[in-house]
Amino acid sequence: MVPQQFNDAPQPRTLLTIEQFRQQLQFRKPVRGKAWIDVQDFSNEEITQKWELDDALKHMDNSRYGPVNFLNIRTLRDNVVPWELEGLADYRVLQEASDRAGVAKDNRQGLNFPDSFALWGKQGTWSFPHVDKHGLYTAVLCEQGEKLWFSWSLDDKELENWAKDRERGEKYEPSQAGFPVLMRNGDLLIQPPGTVHAPASVTNVIMTGYFFWSSRTMNTTARCALLDLEHPNITNEDVQPELGGRLKHLAHASKLRLQPYNWGEEDLEEFQRLEQKNLVVVIHPVRSYKAYQQNGYFAAS
Q: Do you know which PROSITE patterns this protein is assigned to (predicted)?
């Protein structure tokens, strides 16, 4: 984590406020018809729903109503890339990899859009322990408020055992001890792939986030992506249809060690093998990874 007081950026970060988010959401309302927003409502069994914006804002403002998260808000930032990553090509491979031919401006979708997010949480909101999808790094900036970011640092075997426990419905949190990180205004957290975490809102809080891969750790990314394809309940997000194509592009690039990227010290042959496993599961999502093992599509690792 980079605490605000240790941030030595050339220019201090300008932080956004809750009031700015409110004004921008109201501005985005259509001239005709209603505006809708994704809301995570902790008092309802169907946790994530679409609410009319005006009703959602009233709920957020009234302390007598329970905690809610506003999800999938288009970020207000022109540039969501933390300055710590600016100009570092290795951390742009997600955005540069393509699952189609051509170098012209692409139709941004799937993993390539959005690669950023904003979240507005009411005091008391929380998440079950989970990992972010598809082996992504996640950079999160606390714009205003306080967020308790509880994390578990697990090795590959511990992560796999936790995923199996979740699949069996035995427990939500890993067996190993976790550690809390309290984020305040201006604090930046960069989270590696496969990190189990369970954030909670200590106060009303605004967060801005950015997803990325690194060319140096594509083996790790492919391994984490395969785990959440095999155990989809360890993440709270859907499979992205572009995953297979982008991994295929990067597996090819890693074989040739294409510049300007540093392909790191990880086992690239293992990455290329994992890419093939991911591709099979993405193409045939109805059948599980285990079913493909049993039918001989690829050997168990």
A: JMJC
